[in-house]
Design a protein that fits this description.
The chain has two domains: about 10-245, no CATH class; about 255-335, Alpha-Beta Plaits (2-Layer Sandwich). Helices cover about 50% and strands about 0% of the residues. It has helices spanning about 1-10, 15-35, 40-45, 75-80, 105-115, 120-125, 125-135, 150, 155-170, 180-185, 185-200, 210-230, 235, 240-245, 275-280, 300-305, 325-335; strands at about 255-260, 310-315. Strands 1-2 form a two-stranded antiparallel sheet. The radius of gyration is 22 Å and the shape is globular.
Length: about 325
């Protein structure tokens, strides 16, 4: 009886349903974080796991140097290939032989992307979980960031410059090639890798921390503060892994669909309805672009829709709208 009452309260569009979806998402995020950071010895002794599992990349931005990490970070691994001293036989990466091109790693990223797209960002990324938790702090939120449209392109710039070009072409100090993004930017690496290792007593202690540590801590601090007021600022503006997965959103097996027969905006019943658009904290209007580059497939829009017009899954349904056009069609109908 009690279970039936709970289900009755979780009506489409209700706050109860939205809270339920958020709880389920938090459970999945937490379990995946525990699973991919289950090397307990690392946390106890301040060491890094270097077994065979480290040859496999986890889907999210999970630092290789986290004491508990049992897998590698795709972005770190990508730079490790590009910054290998032998990557360019003639002095730089542009002359790399074919066997140094990271087909295995690129293939793994493509598998993750083709299956899930940015669902990985929404459910399986540890730093996404951190930002979600920080955003829960009850302070007034910033819904519109000045220059948001242009800031979204910054993650693609970081991907090209800091993950590919700089590691491929330039070294740092005495190191001929180096992982620029990991070394100078990555807040996830600082939070779950650097801070635990220095605190537990790894190779570097807090007493040995220098200007680089101050820089990385400053970036992390700024992002933590921003995450209180802006939903997932790192995911929106800076994450190169999210940039990679975004290219797969429209072609991935897992997709979002809009049922035009149920959608109030699509069928002209209520052109003012914007429940899904208002609920999306990534700034996506799912009726216009069901699988936009910025959609992290968190499910907030589905829970907010009062008509259950938004569905998602791996099985394509030709009767449901999954690309552009649904809203435009409705606009034309209303004008006529």
């Amino acid at each position: 009886m009690e279970q039936n009452v709970k289900k009755a309260k979780r009506k489409p569009g209700s706050k109860a349903l939205r809270n339920h979806v958020e709880r389920v998402r938090f459970i999945i995020q937490s379990l995946f974080f525990i699973l991919t950071n289950s090397f307990i010895t690392g946390f106890l002794k301040g060491t890094i796991y270097k077994g065979n599992l480290k040859y496999v990349c986890v889907p999210g931005l999970n630092c290789y140097s986290c004491p508990g990490a049992v897998g590698s970070c795709p972005i770190g691994a990508l730079q490790a290939i590009f910054n290998t001293p032998d990557f360019g036989k003639s002095g730089n990466g542009l002359y790399a032989p074919l066997y140094y091109i990271p087909f295995y790693l690129i293939g793994m990223l493509m598998v993750f992307g083709v299956i899930c797209g940015r669902l990985i960002c929404g459910l399986l990324c540890p730093f996404g979980l951190v930002q979600d938790l920080i955003y829960k702090i009850p302070l007034k939120k910033i819904k519109k960031v000045p220059g948001d449209k242009y800031l979204r392109y910054l993650k693609y710039v970081i991907l090209v410059v800091f993950v590919i070009l700089l590691p491929m072409l330039f070294g740092i100090g005495n190191v001929p090639y180096a992982p620029w993004f990991c070394k100078y930017i990555c807040p996830s690496g600082t939070l779950i890798g650097g801070i635990p290792l220095m605190t537990i007593g790894g190779d570097v202690s807090w007493a040995q921390a220098g200007n680089l540590t101050i820089l990385k801590l400053s970036i992390l601090f700024v992002l933590i503060v921003l995450s209180i007021f802006i939903y997932r600022p790192f995911c929106k503006y800076l994450c190169p892994l999210g940039a990679i997965y975004s290219f797969f959103n429209k072609v991935s097996f897992y997709k979002f669909y809009v049922d035009e027969s149920k959608c109030s905006r699509c069928n002209g019943k209520s052109s003012a309805c914007s429940a899904c658009k208002t609920a999306c904290r990534m700034g996506v209007d799912i009726v216009k672009t069901p699988n936009a580059l910025e959609c992290i497939r968190c499910g907030d829009c589905k829970a907010a829709c009062p008509n259950s017009a938004i569905v998602s899954g791996f099985k394509p349904n030709p009767n449901l709208k999954k690309d552009k056009g649904a809203f435009n069609k409705a606009e034309t109908t209303n004008i006529n």
